[in-house]
Amino acid sequence: MENLISLVNKLQRACTALGDHGEESALPTLWDSLPAIAVVGGQSSGKSSVLESIVGRDFLPRGSGIVTRRPLVLQLHKINEGKEYGEFLHLPRKRFTDFAAVRKEISDETDRETGRTKQISTVPIHLSIYSPNVVNLTLIDLPGLTKVAVDGQSDNIVQDIENMVRSFIEKPNCIILAISPANQDLATSDAIKISRDVDPKGERTFGVLTKIDLMDKGTDAVDILEGKSYRLQFPWIGVVNRSQADINKSVDMINARQREREYFANTPEYKQLAHRMGSEHLGIMLSKHLETVIKSRIPGLQSLISKSILELEMELNRLGKPIATDAGGKLRQIMDTCRTFDQIYKEHLDGLRSGGDKIYNVFDGQFPAALKRLQFDKHLSMENVRKLITEADGYQPHLIAPEQGYRRLIESTIVSIKGPAEAAVDAVHSILKELVHKAISETADLKLYPTLRVDVGNAACESLDRMRDESKKATLKLVDMECGYLTVEFFRKLPQDVEKGGNPTHSMFDRYNDSYLRRVGTTVLSYVNMVCEGLRNSIPKSIVYCQVREAKRSLLDRFFTELARMEQKQLSGMLNEDPAVMERRVALSKRLELYKSAEAEISSAAWSK
Question: I want to staple 145 with a disulfide (CB 3.0 to 4.6 A). Which of 94, 190, 525, 582 is the partner?
């Protein structure tokens, strides 16, 4: 099970390196889910001495006022042999064998974060100590609770410290080590008071009673140690720290532990409790309990990490890939983004996404309706037929059939189809442009680069404008073709029709009577309707060929050609990503790497147990 504590130690160090201190953050936090033991106590409660007794070394800063101003994550690693040493996370690969230097570095690193203003910070310091005299254990030393601010500190420092302590111990995965001095009334203990607030049933609180040897004569702490004065789920543990005189004389910690054992063994009041008293027992008991808690939390940790990995990957996908540094990489990134946009655009046209069906609605609904609204019969009224045929005959009336009159009537009627044809081209053009904006909004990478988004949109719309112009030319040519060459069969039938329905002996002027003109109008209307039906089918084909097909085939071709000629500075200008997005991507990537590593190692540890 020792590998489980080592794993948690590793994850805590990685969290700190990535800025995950368990505070409110927009990023998923692993810190809050890792079991930890937080050491809580008031100033002068003997908290520092307890930690040093567990470690067996003098290494914590001492002095008056608030000495601990940042959380100290103390990770103890038992080694079988070799010289003991300490390592700081912020000074990798540097070993401290002189623990006086460790003490100084804690003070210096505190000042680097908080300055010399005696203010506090929630950013932890990570210290790992490797020694044959320790058990595998992780403790978080928190600033001592105080009631009065000292010179150089703000008036709200008292509340700030309490808030910091609460932020650690209120988490359900935190084990509370509440340090209380025996020579003070337990009812006034800062550690017990704040522990009771967050853990009223005492289910995750360990009570440690210090300064038992300094109690007034005739008094003892047996009731407290036996849980009669204040009951916790776990037994109270008493310790005897070194006195200030011992500290001043640099009394060896090994000797101090021996004296502690002798005190409990030889003091009648505590003799029956001696087997579970002392700093050595405290360290062993906390290590075993931490192992048990970590073991029970493994399934929950695995679930949390798996969920967080999924969330991080989704967020990174939304943010897109990081910007390349070289010109080739930038060009490739722009091209890939444009191809993604182009593919989404094609999917809209092909029906894989919504929007393309609107083009069919133009051909099947709007365009035929516009043709019907032309009302060819009104254009071929009796007055208009007489007028055009008479004008076409000129000074010499037609002999058999008014060919020129027919032509003028047909041409003047068919040419009116140009209006609906142009409207159909414009309607499809509007839909194609609408789909450009839709595809841009659905291209994730374009959301990240405003300049590129505008450039792609402009390039696509310019291409569509050119396609619209070509489509109008082609569509209007279809109408002009019908005007320029009439179907021969139509004219061949005219003499027969005249012979069947008329008398060739009639005078030329009789051929301008109402019946004759009505027959001409009906014949022209029949021909125009035939042409209109043909154009109703051919114009959509022309529009699809010139606009829709070209949009699918070459929407960004010119833009790609321009990109190939651009310098790195111009390419960089297109990829002008928000710096905040870049920073978030880096942070997410590092955190994802941590979570994936944690997932693999926790799974390995779970199997090995």
Answer: 190
